[in-house]
Write a structure and sequence with these properties.
single chain; 490 residues; alpha/beta; Aldehyde Dehydrogenase, Chain A, domain 1; Aldehyde Dehydrogenase, Chain A, domain 2; seven-stranded mixed sheet; six-stranded mixed sheet; binds 1,4-dihydronicotinamide adenine dinucleotide; binds magnesium ion
């Protein structure tokens, strides 16, 4: 390869770190300086085809599905160990590239390692069942890997989303073609360089960079790919589902939301204020499960808005690599402009408690002010549309039934949280809320052991936990006749 391409990050195709020959390149930015860190390839159709062909061969001929579960598990443990050993390097890279505070990036790296470890352990627990058929026969349900998985991930938790996709797929015996988000491919590409040494055979994991509309769409449409796992916008989820229909691929979609964070007057007030801010401002609000609709019982509403505002004032915006930073810049100019637009929409739809603009203290970088709108009507755009930035919509409610109605009046249903010291009320709410995840007296804790995914237009399928591996498994029914005579029909 010519030296002039030395700044181009290689992709992983068939076990080789491959420098793309594509004429098209994607600049990768540091969102705190708006400077280009490095370039990656917008993989050509031929390169994506090569990655898919490698994954196909590794599945059909390479013996990956036939490896023992113990072997696959040990490989995943080695990946987990490597991520732990390199956590500082990875966290710094993630923080620089995504804009998230370094301390949060460190948590993400630990979670990514834990995810590989969990599925390494689960590999040896995949088992089928014996079915009680009414005959002299042995009827089995066997679990088998789905095949080649196309995995398309977003930019808000880059390495962690790669882990959520790769770990269960590999444990199940699938092979993978993963496409990181164009904004944040760097940690997945770092991982790409280590997989071979961890024991992942050539072709089992392929990582290609490229634009969603080209490389991503090609993976989705490709007849040699058996399944698509996608995390991202609802708009792209719909495009993917339509395209996947042509080849009847299995599809799982995790599409974000407009999650209600619901506060009753009897909640612990201090914990509630903390939970409201944490729920919507963590990771700059670039979180699929962000508690972006804050529903507050009328009797505590004015006091709640004041306390939230006061505490939000102290959130320290700053460069992602500064350990004191609690909120970094947004990931990209596109996302920055999108959030700025919603801030303007919010100003015309509701009252501003704090923020609503761009902080003056930064000469450059995609920083926006943590923003709290109040007296928001649930029909407002800022209450219905996913903003994916630090913008909260506070909505008052009178009765428990009103809280339920407002919470469920959304096209989305990813997550929700309820804060109350009345256990009966909290449990009534848990039942009444139409969402895939409901937290009580907390918001956002996420564990690899517990299922993750949405209702309604937040998508379908579940990641994490034992549910997460099921999405990469087919069920084969096997009937073993134990009669030694002919069937005797003719
Ligand atoms: P996006 O949905 O366009 O991108 C997510 C991934 O999908 C990226 O890897 C992208 O390359 C790929 N992609 C895009 N178009 C594709 C296509 N036609 N076929 C196959 N793959 C495709 O998200 P974007 O544009 O970066 O952000 C827009 C909004 O999406 C955000 O403001 C936010 O509301 C939402 N979002 C939700 C996420 C979640 O975690 N659920 C994550 C990222 C964004
Ligand atoms: Mg997009």
């Amino acid at each position: 390869m010519p030296v002039t391409q030395s700044k181009l990050e290689p992709m992983l195709i068939d076990g080789e770190l491959t420098e793309s020959t594509s004429a098209s390149r994607i600049p990768v930015y540091d969102p705190s300086t708006e400077e280009v860190i490095v370039e990656v390839a917008d993989a050509s159709t031929a390169e994506v085809d090569a990655a898919i062909a490698a994954a196909r061969r590794a599945f059909d001929e390479g013996g990956w599905p036939q490896t023992t579960a113990q072997e696959r598990g040990r490989i995943l443990f080695r990946i987990a160990d490597k991520i732990r050993a390199e956590a500082a390097v990875l966290a710094e890279l993630e923080s620089r590239n995504s804009g998230k505070p370094i301390v949060e990036a460190e948590f993400d790296m630990a979670d990514a390692a834990t995810c590989f470890e969990y599925y390494g352990g689960l590999a040896t627990k995949i088992s089928g069942t014996v079915n009680p058929v009414p005959d002299n026969a042995l009827s089995l349900s066997m679990k088998e890997p789905v095949g080649v998985a196309g995995q398309i991930i977003p930019w808000n938790y880059p390495l962690l989303m790669a882990a959520w996709k790769l770990a269960p797929a590999l444990a199940a015996g699938c092979t993978c073609v993963l496409k990181p988000a164009e904004q944040t491919p760097l940690t997945a590409l770092k991982l790409a360089g280590w997989l071979g040494k961890c024991g992942v055979p050539p072709g089992v994991v392929n990582i290609v960079t490229g634009l969603g509309e080209t490389a991503g769409a090609h993976i989705v449409a490709h007849p040699q790919v058996d399944k698509i796992a996608f995390t991202g916008s609802a708009a792209v989820g719909k495009i993917i589902m339509k395209s996947a229909a042509d080849t009847l691929k299995r599809v799982t979609l995790e599409l974000g939301g407009k999650s209600p964070n619901i506060f009753f007057a009897d909640a612990d007030f201090e914990a509630a204020i903390d939970g409201a801010l944490f729920g919507v401002f963590i990771n700059q609000g670039e979180v699929c499960s962000a508690g972006s609709r804050i529903l507050v019982e009328r009797s505590i509403y004015p006091k709640f808005v004041d306390a939230m505002t006061e505490k939000a004032r102290a959130i320290k915006l700053g460069p992602p690599l500064d350990r004191a930073t609690k909120m970094g810049p947004l990931v990209s100019r596109e996302q920055f402009e999108r959030v700025r637009q919603y801030q303007a929409i919010g100003r015309s739809e509701a009252k501003v408690a704090i923020g609503g603009g761009q902080p003056k203290s930064f000469a450059r970088g995609y920083y926006v002010e943590p923003t709290i709108f109040y007296d928001v009507d649930n029909s407002a755009r800022i209450a219905r549309e996913e903003i994916f930035g630090p913008v909260a919509a506070v909505i008052p409610f009178d009765k428990e039934s009103d809280a339920v109605r407002i919470a469920n009046d959304s096209p989305f249903g990813l997550a929700a949280a309820v804060w109350s010291r009345d256990i009966y009320r909290a449990l009534r709410m848990v039942r009444a809320i139409r969402a895939g995840i409901v937290w009580v007296n907390h918001m956002q804790p996420t564990y690899v052991e517990a299922p993750w995914g949405g209702y309604k237009q937040s998508g379908f399928g579940r990641e994490l936990g034992v549910h997460g591996i099921d999405e990469y498994l087919e069920t084969k029914q096997v009937h073993i006749n134990l009669n030694e005579q002919p069937i005797g029909w003719y």
